[in-house]
Specification:
Helix content is about 25%, strand content about 40%. The chain contains two helices and six strands, in the order E-H-E-H-E-E-E-E. The protein is elongated and about 55 Å long.
């Protein structure tokens, strides 16, 4: 099981990472806070101070076509907000 699925790089989290030294990831639903902390520390070699997690329910989507109404849901996901130690940083765009 991969614990960290992908980093969440949005406008809001880019501003938060600059001010509050926090980064966010989409993680596996079964992952605990300690597993997330260990994964971030080993992969990015930084010190993690705090981990906050939240589970988002998938949004309801519907589409109207000639053949009728199609409705469903997007997949739900778990998001982790990780607070890094002062002076440390994760640069997602370093390898581009």
């Amino acid at each position: 099981m991969t614990i960290l699925k992908k980093p969440l790089v949005t406008e809001k989290f880019t501003a938060i990472s600059d001010k509050l030294n926090k980064v966010s990831f989409i993680v596996a639903k079964a992952a605990t806070k300690t597993e997330i902390k260990q994964a971030v520390e080993t992969i990015y070699s930084v010190n993690v101070v705090n981990v906050n997690t939240m589970i988002y329910a998938g949004k309801a989507k519907s589409r109207f076509t000639k053949k009728g109404n199609f409705s469903g849901r997007k997949a739900s996901f778990k998001k982790a907000i990780i607070t890094l130690q002062d002076g440390q940083k994760i640069d997602f765009f370093a390898n581009i």
